[in-house]
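Appendix B. Raw example, untouched.
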Amino acid sequence: MTAVLLSWAAALWLEGAAGLHTDSVVLAVALTLTLSRGGWSADRRGRLTALALLPLAAAGCAGLSRLLLAHYWLGAALFTAALALAIWIRRHGPAATRAGTLITLPLIALLIVPGPTLPPGARPEAVNWAWSALIGALAWASVLLVRTLAGRCLPSPQAPESPQPPKPRRAATSRPRPSTRMAVQMAAAIAAAFTLGRLLYDDHWPWLVLTAYVAASGNRGRDDVLRKGVRRFLGACAGTLLATGVAACGLGGRPAVVALFGVLAVALWLRPLDYAFWAAGMTTALSLLLGYFGQNATELLPTRLSAIAAGAVLSVASAWWLLPVRRRRPVLTRS
């Protein structure tokens, strides 16, 4: 949360100084939240890779955001292909996995902030891409600065190293690799979410697509996808009740912003216990954000719940019946 607040303050100043759209501030917060959970800053190579990829991916997503507004189906196809590619390249080792994760971050932030960084009348487009890239670099710098200071002031204890068992050779089989199967499952779920989202939810399609991604990401088997889908829906239900109570209090303006960051802090703290806490916190925070921009968040909550349920169902159906990934069980040997 320290990195999030630092990024938010810098983006808020940048918004006023350069006349950016308010969505640029939300983009900085979203990128910092998602970036801070990765292990990219463990070594110098990871930090440089993140610095090179994140601004480029953020700039590309700025163009993709414009494309989704002008040509929805073409933008949806490119979004789906990029997300599947980021999963498919995991077969090439840890470095490729980190690169795929970094590419994914702005795509997920785009679902949280589907609007442009600059107002619609701002031209040329290259300027909009440059500002988005700068926001990506700002999120990178905020997370790296806070992690570096925390590492020097509060060093964490290192666990003793344990010998790594040799990796078993991959048996010859005609079945696709797990990375390929997960990429196909994700592409199918996201494509279906884009289609149903546009047909049934109009401008609120990002809620359905975001849930489809969250439930299917990090696929550890069919049961894992089902568990995450159920937890996200239950957390969203709890967040709906909490957001309704907050809306009834008439909270708005600066107090709503303070409450939003407070909810995010609690949700981050409780996330390791159960993902439902994070889903509840995000639902409440997004409702506060909509209320801050003058939208009636209470009326939109039933729509959000139905979209979350639909996205979870799509991910579960894709994971269970389309090239399912079976979780490996440990082999027990007799001594």
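End of appendix B.
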